[in-house]
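Milestone M4 deliverable, item 7.
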Amino acid sequence: MSDELRPHRSRRAAGEVVRPEAPGPARGRRNRAARASGQGRAGERRQRERSRNDPIWYIQLRNLLLGVAALSAGWWLAGWIFSLTGRPPELVVYLASIALGIALAGGVAVVIGRLTGAFNDDPGRVLTDLGEALDRIARGDFSVRLNSPTNGRSPTNGLLADLVASVNNMAAGLGNVEQQRQEFISNVSHEIQSPLTSIGGFASLLRDGDLDEATRQHYLDVISAEVSRLSKLSDNLLRLSALDSSDDVDRQPLRLDEQLRSVVLLLEPQWTAKRLDVQLDTVPVEFDADADMLRQVWMNLLSNAVKYTPDGGSIRVGVVASAGQVKVVIADTGIGIGPDDLPRVFERFFRADKARSGDGNGLGLSLVKRVVELHGGEVTVASQLDQGSTFTVTLPLKG
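Output delivered:
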C-alpha cells in the first residue's frame, strides 16, 4: 500500500480537537523550503552521477593533490600549535605533522566521498531500496531491478550484494512465469474460442428449414467434430495439470515391445485407410514404468506420424536396448518440420504451420516431453521439410 493510500493515524491525545492548518505565509515558506530541499537533493544526486563518470586519471590526480594539500596543511597546523605550546624535538614535530596531515586527508576524503558517492553505498539506503523493490514485486511489478552496491566504481562482494542479486533474479524469474501465464491464458482462450465460434455458426445455419438432409448432416458432423476437439483439449489440459502438480510415477513391470505392438494395432484403421507401410522392429524389453503414461507417449507420436504422412508413405517403429537404457525410434516420411519451428515443437500450444495444425491443439508433444522426463528420460526430434521426422525416446531401464 502506498503512502498516499494509507489511513492517517493521528498521534494526538484522545479528545483533542484537530483543526485544519490555515494557509498563510508560514505555510508558504515551508512549501518553498521543501521545494528548495528537494531541488538540493536532486542536484546532489546529479553531482554524484557526474562524479561517477570521471576518468581514472582525473581521480588519481585529484587524490594526489588532496594528499599533498592535506600534508601541507597538517605541517602548518602542527607548527602553529607548537608555537603556542612550545616547540618539542624535531622528530615529534615531524610525526605530529604527518598524523595531522593524514587525519585531515581522511576527513576531506570522507566529505568528498559523501558528496560524490565514491565510497561504499550506505547499507541503510541499500536495505531501503530492497524493501521498496520487494514491495513493488508483491504488487505484481516484476520489472524492478536493483543496482549492485559499489565500492567506488567497482561492485562489491558480500551479503548485501548477494541479496541484491537474489532479488533481481527473483524478479526476473517471476516476470518469466507471469509472461508464460499470460501466454497460456491467451492460447487456451484461442483454442476454446475457435471451436465455439464454429459450433455457434453451424448451429445457426441448422435453423434454416430449407436445408437438404445431406447439408444438415454435414453441419452436424462439423459440430460433433468441434465438440470432440473441445473435449480433447480439456482432457489434455487436465493431464498436463496433473503431471505438473506431481512427480509421482506408478512404476510397474512393463513389456515395452508388447505395449508398442498394441498401440500400432490400435491405430491400424487410420494407417490402413491411408495405405501406409508400417514396420515394427522390436526386441523384448521389460522394465519398471507407468504403463498408462507411456501409452500416451506412443499414442501421440504414432498418431502424429499417421496424420502427417501422405497416402502411400511409410512409418518405422524401432526399439534398441543397450546398457542401462532403451531407445524407441519412430520415423515417418511425412511433411516434416521446418528448421525455425523445430526447436519449439515441444512448447505448449505451439503448432508449426497450418499444414501441421489439423484438429490438434498443440499439447500432445508437451505431454510426451513431460511424461518422458518424469521417467528420467529424454525425447529428441530430427526433421526436414518434405522428408519426414524422426522422434527418439530414450528411457533408463532402472528408475
